């Protein structure tokens, strides 16, 4: 079974994964507050209408979710995983970040009181009690009610509480025991690694085992960029307890990741077998916000953003592009050369920023910024006396390097490639035979090639 809500808005499809003892029904209160989104809430194998599947181990559950995503041929999606579903969402996101075929649609992850890739923290006496409920039979109504009430900050109203209790009782005995005895105890940290897909990590203020501390220790370290927030008035069953708050938080995260959304035809090509795993992973990584390098100040980033906006006035996302450029300069992954009279890139950019700051560049209006940059290009701006700045001659060459680096990074983005109709990355997958091109005449496209018109 699945719950599907088709909204009128464009944007990523939200794929919802429930907790232990729940089903797709736990997301109905949340979907009510997401009327404009395309949403798919799934019954994980062993639960809800999928209870007859019995227990799938963690590896099989991740394979199942990956196949579900591939089968829908989604051009973009965000995974929303609650508790047990969060562990599965993280493992599939890790595979997507490494370039696995058919998973390039995953733009973001929302973890709701999520079980981590490492063993889930749980009081062992409570684990034993929960195992006892299903040891020889299905849980009774009283036992299921005990489970639901223990995981909420306040008693749920009757309709929601009844649904939650019924879901626990119809869970597969094998799936319930399999997760508590094995799945929740498995350590997948090495497989999860560090994931470049941005995440929103949520914790209930009154959640004992998987609250804020557990999320900071066990889930946050697996994501390059993540925002951790605490939901007040909730324990573990946040989708039932605070559905409107949860929906608003999900909407905010979706808005943050949609800058990485690609046109549907281009996204399908990037996710196809015409693209190697390493190429796909590299291109997808360019869609995701880089971590801020410690060497750059907030003023440096403001200056870099203003420079990018002047160099590429019609390009979207100047701040994100600036962060990506600065990340490359900090890491030393630039274009491999520099002008002889300039110091190494990191120092040159730091001194270039200091020189621009001396002229108040970032605080000027757009017209004044443009006029100052014209003077920089003409060799009229600089300081020969201050070793923390660049001379006029150096500034002219540094600004040339800034322009080249900005355009180089911008052209390397999949969003730019989609906009100009470039598909040269899709000529050789991981098979022994590289597909290449069959037709090479001007304006003579092959069936697999997305034109700019098709990709828009």
From TrEMBL:
Keywords: Hydrolase. It comes from the Bacteria. InterPro entries: AB_hydrolase_1, AB_hydrolase_fold, AB_hydrolase_sf. Residues 437-456 are annotated as: Disordered. Coiled coil: none annotated. Residues 14-248 form the AB hydrolase-1 domain. This is AB hydrolase-1 domain-containing protein.
